[in-house]
Amino acid sequence: MGIRFTVLSSGSTGNATVVDNGETKVLIDVGFSAKKMEALMKERELAADSIDAIVITHEHSDHIKGLGALARKYDLPIYANEKTWVELDRQIGVIAEENKRVMETGGFEEFGTLRVESFGISHDAAEPVGYCFYEGDQKLSVVTDLGYMSEKVKEKITDSDALVLETNHDVDMLRVGHYPWSIKRRILGDKGHLSNEAAGEALCDVMTNKTKSVYMAHLSRDHNLMDLARLTVNNIVQERAPESKQLRLMDTYFDRSTKWDVLGSE
């Protein structure tokens, strides 16, 4: 059936996405308690015990909060690079050795016909990554929690059918917001989070005629609005690539899942 995916939830409070090719289901991050993860999956008629593998982007709590509990309950293998595993071992409790899988940055894993590639990104974590998923000629890229979009990252995610792309904050809202300047500086820095404007500019560089949908993800609840993110990204795309009529800008939610998106469907 090719690739389908759902963003179970995305934001500063927690993040998780499921990718399914009909034979294999891969969970990206476990940013909620096991109980909440089960509820989110149930929204999309998914049973937690149907998950075949978990891949981790980085060790921050909004990406691994329920990782240990979920993996132990359902005996799930976890894939992460070595530096991330050092941090995970300190935070998620005991994991069966056979379920601790090392997937080095830049490496590939194959789950049946579903191929998964990791790539390095810039964030204040041990060794953060994004992921590309391939099934035949279909490609899904998931990239959040990065301070800026490097040329290497752009190269990896170019020509995707769909993207889950960080639009974390509006720069003006962040600058006048209530956060201490030290936190604002972190968010705005090269190892922080991608703004609406930066996401829009990067999108123009990586999308092709193949790219049909972009899910705006990891929005700040304090310094962004979904309508603002959509408007900002759309304005940039229309200015730089007005011929991109087929592109759909899709919402994600901090408290519920997105509908299944099936690559290749209209």
Q: Can you describe what's shown?
A:
Pfam families: Lactamase_B_2 (PF12706). With 266 residues, the chain is of the alpha/beta class. 29% of the residues lie in helices and 24% in strands. It is built from nine helices and 14 strands. It has a seven-stranded mixed beta sheet. Strands 7-8-9-10-11-12-13 form a seven-stranded mixed beta sheet. Strand 9 and strand 10 form a beta hairpin. The longest helix has 15 residues, at 226-240. The relative contact order is 0.16.
Mean of the pLDDT scores?
A: 96
Are there runs of 5+ residues with pLDDT below 50, and where? Answer: none
What sort of overall outline do the alpha carbons produce when their principal axes are compared?
A: globular
Helix content: 25-40%
For the termini, the CA-CA separation is: 14 Å
* Strand content range: 15-25%
Side-by-side strand order of the widest sheet: 6-5-4-3-2-1-14
The profile of the biggest β sheet is: 7 strands, mixed
Total helical segments: 9
Number of β-strand runs: 14
Computed structural class? alpha/beta
Radius of gyration, whole Å: 17 Å
Oligomer: single chain
Following the backbone from N to C, one meets helices and strands in this order, namely EEEHEHHEHEEEEEHEHHHEHEE
Function: Counteracts the endogenous Pycsar antiviral defense system. Phosphodiesterase that enables metal-dependent hydrolysis of host cyclic nucleotide Pycsar defense signals such as cCMP and cUMP.
Catalytic activity: 3',5'-cyclic CMP + H2O = CMP + H(+); 3',5'-cyclic UMP + H2O = UMP + H(+)
Domain Metallo-beta-lactamase: 13-178
Protein name: MBL fold metallo-hydrolase
